[in-house]
Write a structure and sequence with these properties.
Elements (H helix, E strand, L loop, with lengths): L18 E3 L5 E3 L11 E7 L7 E8 L12 E7 L10 E6 L4 E7 L13 E7 L5 E5 L14 E5 L5 E5 L12 E4 L3 E8 L20 E12 L7 E17 L3 E3 L4 E3 L5 E5 L4 E5 L13 E5 L6 E6 L5 E5 L4 E5 L6 E6 L14 E6 L6 E5 L4 E6 L1
Antiparallel strand pairs: 1-3, 2-24, 3-27, 4-5, 5-6, 6-7, 8-9, 9-10, 10-11, 12-13, 13-14, 14-15, 15-16, 17-18, 18-19, 19-20, 21-22, 22-23, 23-24, 25-26, 26-27
């Protein structure tokens, strides 16, 4: 997903806060209990482009607490591209405050950072802990392709956006997908997909398919953290709880690999396997001591078109965003039935509409809808009744 330049000012699109896109957003619903069926408006809230011109919003996370620069329920968004629109080179995080409708810069990180193998390119892996720490993944490149990738890292920022530490190691290789978290304050558990192991550049083609080589080495990593008062989180142990997922470089969208990660109330971790065009489940996610491989299939094909971000709606259903069109798909995780699909990005400039535009996703705290970003126009949007 390569964002395009529309403005270089955070405040330039403040006037769009009242803009509602209504055309082409109908819901194809098969059940009356569809969560998506109640969402009728798609409201553009703000530009995600900071003053340095970073583009391509990826991660979306809602702040659980107020700390430092961040107010509770702020929407935190990071950028994957720099002003030159090179993927894997963005280093900024912005905050949108719903109560004031203002957008501000939270953090700006240099592209070259010795603590992070390969540098900085902020990915969809981002979370804010109840203790105020922000943890964000780096999936770096120097030329905007996987040809020059580094292994990346996880960056730990304080609540004022200052870098305090970086985590790297053999289990951390291109932290890619949106994080799931269990957070009790003094302890936390993170679940993150890693999608860079041994992936060559997009010019290395499989002779059988003529497409970039697929490497079945992507993982889901569980990290347990200890957080002492006033001190940064410390990793106490790491466990690979899923592996063998497909990952591949792509000239247009940079990298395709497992992206969405969401934890259900029964300790089931749901993962969107983009190349497999499916949603899978890893049971006993917080306690298992060994990998579940690629888990068990929940839903495959149908309305799914390379699913990326995942979230769980208040009714317990999964919401998945498609990469290959602008639809959100609602799935019953118990039956695997795909209940509804809604065009949340219907930009006709792409074919199909919205193709390549969606990435980050987060539920609103009151459950009334969700936030998402449109990469093509570098904006934060909400879906509401």
């Amino acid at each position: 997903m390569v964002g395009t330049v529309r403005s270089r000012s955070i405040t330039a699109m403040a006037a769009l806060s009242a803009l509602t896109v209504s055309s082409f957003h109908g819901v194809q619903a098969e059940e009356n209990n569809s969560y998506l069926a109640a969402l009728h408006r798609h409201v553009t809230l703000t530009s995600t482009i900071p003053e340095n011109g970073d583009l391509n919003p990826y991660a979306v996370f809602v702040a659980p607490v107020s700390a430092g620069k961040i107010q509770k329920d702020d929407v935190i968004v990071d950028n994957f591209n720099n002003i030159s629109n090179l993927q894997g080179t963005g280093g900024t995080i912005v905050l949108y405050t719903p109560s004031t409708k203002k957008t501000s810069l939270f953090a700006s990180l240099p592209q070259n950072l010795k603590q992070c193998p390969g540098g900085v390119g902020l990915s969809t892996a981002m979370v804010m802990l109840k203790s105020g720490w922000v943890i964000v993944g780096s999936a770096p490149s120097t030329d905007g392709t996987m040809k020059t990738r580094g292994d990346g890292c996880l960056l730990v920022l304080d609540a004022n956006g200052q870098l305090v530490s970086a985590w790297s190691g053999p289990n951390i290789n291109y932290p890619w997908g949106n994080m799931a978290v269990i957070d009790s304050g003094d302890k936390a558990t993170l679940f993150i997909s890693m999608a860079g192991f041994d992936v060559p550049g997009p010019d290395v083609l499989d002779p059988k398919t003529g497409r970039p080589v697929v490497v079945n080495k992507a993982t889901v990593l569980r990290m347990n953290l200890q957080i002492s008062a006033g001190k940064p989180p410390v990793v106490t142990d790491e466990t690979v709880i899923g592996d063998g997922f497909g990952q591949a470089a792509d000239k247009d969208v940079f990298l395709v690999g497992p992206t969405g990660v969401v934890l259900g109330p029964d300790d089931t971790l749901y993962v969107s396997d983009a190349l497999g065009n499916r949603i899978v489940a890893i049971d006993q996610a917080s306690t298992r001591t060994a990998s579940a491989g690629t888990g068990r299939d929940i839903s495959k094909d149908g309305k799914l078109r390379r699913p990326l971000a995942l979230a769980m709606a208040p009714n317990g259903n999964l919401i998945a965003l498609n990469a290959k069109n602008g639809q959100a798909v609602e799935i019953d995780p118990n039956s695997g039935k795909q209940l509804a699909a809604q065009w949340i990005d219907a930009n006709p400039a792409q074919s199909p509409p919205g193709n390549g535009d969606l990435f980050g996703l987060a539920m609103k705290p009151d459950g009334s809808g969700f936030y998402y970003v449109e990469d093509d126009v570098n904006t934060l949007v909400e879906a509401v009744p």
